[in-house]
Design a protein that fits this description.
With 78 residues, the chain is mostly helical. The chain is 77% helix and 0% strand.
Length: 78
């Protein structure tokens, strides 16, 4: 199946540069990028849906567990 996509000139230039540097086809690179984006988007949407379903069932992490999580990760966020 062929599709026509309008790609901004700056992204097109970056794609062309990457294709030249990697000795690969622009179409191949664009297909890889779109495939990765679609897979990642599906993964995120599935995780969100599962989280919403857990919230609907009132399945929340206990306060102590959340406090521990934030204490362990506080340094990483700064």
């Amino acid at each position: 199946m062929n599709a026509v996509l309008e790609i901004s000139s700056d992204i097109k230039a970056k794609l062309h540069h990457l294709a030249m540097e990697s000795h690969r086809n622009e179409t191949e690179l664009a297909n890889e990028a779109l495939s990765a984006f679609i897979e990642h988007d599906a993964y995120i949407r599935t995780r969100i849906q599962k989280g919403l379903e857990q919230a609907d069932r009132k399945e929340f992490a206990p306060d102590a567990e959340m406090d521990q999580f934030f204490a362990e990760h506080a340094d990483k966020a700064a």
